[in-house]
Amino acid sequence: MKKKFTLVLLLLALPFNAQQKIAAEVNRLIAAKIQFPEFSPLIATNGPAVPGGVVSEAQYAALNKSELNRLLVSAPPAIALELPYQGETLTILLYKAEVLAEGFHVATDSEDSVPYEKGLHYRGIIKGDEVSIASFNFFRGEFNGIVSSKRLNNLVTGRLLEEGNTNRYILYSDANVTLPLQFKCNAPEPGTHFGTQWNRQPDNVQSNRCVTVYFEMDHDLYLQNGSSVANTTNWMTSVFNNVQTLFANDGITTAIKSTFIWTTPDPYEGESSFDYLGQFHVQRPVFDGDVGQLVGIDPEGLGGVAVTIAGLCSPFNFSYSDVELGFSTVPAYSWTVQVIIHELGHLFGSPHTHGCYWNGNNTAIDGCGSSAGFPEGNCPQGPIPPTLLGGTIMSYCHLVPGVGINFANGFGIQPAQRMLNHVESSGCLSTDCINTCINGVAGFTITNGINTTTVTWTDVSNTGPWEVSFAPFNEAFTSWQQVNTNSYTATGLTPNVYYKIGIRPVCSSGAIAPVQELTFAASGNACDGITFTDTGGLAGNYSNEQYLQRTFSPNAPNSLVVVTFSSFNIEEDFDFMYVYNGADTTAPLIGVFTGNVNPGTILSSAADGSLTFVFRSDIGLTLSGWDASVTCIFPLSTEDNIIAGFSYYPNPTGSTVNITSAEELTSLSVYNVTGQLLLQKDVAGLHASADLSSFADGIYIVAVKAGNSQETFRIIKNSGF
């Protein structure tokens, strides 16, 4: 009885009563006597089989190009797609779908707007199987798609990725893939903010709002799509049709708003998905979409990560997916769809189904992730779905042999309801996928006085007006002021005390845009020496969901700001500090810091002597933050600070630079041009030297002190001297 009871509970957790939206539309069209003309674009063949045993069982076929062209020319509103598979003919009833939002555009690293000839996208069900789901995409000379059912699991149809191949196709169930699918999602576990509101039974069957998506594709995806912007875009829209279909079947409306393709080597690299996520945010702090995702083919199977759970209408609306174009020559559409939709599911509001967040009592829906070694929370392990059933999209059931994830299961009732609740409560979303309300504030310039700060912002999506609110850091925004220019000056500030400003565009649609909140402080006189801490000060922790920016500019002429950290402790791989060599975030990036690795001493080498620090924390854990001292050093030309009889030689040098003076020298420091301290030592006497032999050839900054006087100079290291 216990086994039967467990199975019944699991079946009740799956969305059989909600998994009929696509089927209902097919039935509506049939009842309206809409014709479903038959198309048979594939002719069954006997192989040859793909090498390497990537799939244990597959159907091979040849493309009937005239039949494909007939479909492209006629573009009927509905079709009956006939596919050969294992000695039978599958009939898929499909209706036309629109995956692109109005105003969709394609950009690359060299062009802001690339013309795009869109294909035809369809979705539907297997004839006679109303709990199945299917989506197919048709382009000039090619088509692809996925059919999911209890019997077939996820049946992938696509062109084999063989060099020069245009007509050899494969149809295979991803249950027959022999390679291990080790995708692991690194999204943070939700905190206590997931309360009883998330444990309701379904009360909303269809979203009234639309979530638009921005996708950025790395250079490897471009190369593997034949170095073609059109092919890469076709691949992305094909994948998204499958993603959109699965969301639509659970009542959630989505559309692609824009894409960006790297046609030259992209700037992303790292050893973890967090590395790519953080770099994506630095490279693309805002984008044309309600949510954004970097999609790439990266080494070591990094999996995916969303910056938070339930990130709509917030600065935490981005994710990363490491995907596969194919397994050897076998197209990997279903695997790619799973990775991408899983991370979007987090941003839309759902945690993992094996976590202790469900059923109204903080228990698990299934036990797939826990049984595979990835538990979340302290609750009993949930049941493992039987082989014939499979897991849902937000599960880890792909890690359990013989179970897998079946798209016909969708998200499941509870995950779908959490996402519907979050979508419907997100006031920045449009109701038509057209009149979007996106906050395009991408960067800030801070101009500090002693008691004033002027914040100027860059908005890549809007030209104004904006609404602005200002408050001390620990107080709430109480009123909003409309401004027509992208600048706001806060007055009456106490130096080195934190304040915050909220900025949002005024949207013509009446939607309320997400707020871009900035924490800042009037910096005071940096050259007189000040303390730089997080918002928790020396004794407390910083806050969740924080965007903090501080610019330190020298208040003495011809001087350079130097910041020395005595402690540093932020959440590793989730909270980040970015340091820029100048007065704002358009300056060169010195470094990105996370965890408890102390940044040490950082010296500005910018023309104005400034340093800018940006700190971002996520929605989860907060730690003690940092403590740093801020001061200035003075270059050679500052007459008030020169050291009597000072000289240095040789310059350039192959190894050692020698320093002499008429005053007793006390310390010597060497920095690289990005401001990082490389060498520091105390000296005593009229002579000192710095050994640069272990340094790479280049330019370095040397700072020498003699009592209260200081000299700074640039030295060229050249091993040829």
Automatic annotation (TrEMBL):
Record bears the keyword Phosphoprotein: no
Domain of life the protein comes from: Bacteria
GO molecular function annotations of the record: metalloendopeptidase activity
Pfam families associated with the record: CUB (PF00431), Por_Secre_tail (PF18962), Reprolysin_5 (PF13688)
Stretches assigned to the CUB domain: 527-633
Residue intervals of the Peptidase M12B domain: 209-397
CDD domains: CUB (cd00041)
Segment forming the signal sequence: 1-18
Chain segments annotated as coiled-coil in the UniProt record: none
GO biological process assignments: membrane protein ectodomain proteolysis
Keywords, ordered alphabetically: Disulfide bond, Signal
SMART domains assigned: CUB
PANTHER family associated with the record: ADAM A DISINTEGRIN AND METALLOPROTEASE DOMAIN (PTHR11905), ADAM METALLOPROTEASE (PTHR11905:SF159)
Identification of the protein by name: CUB domain-containing protein
Protein source organism: Flavobacterium cyanobacteriorum
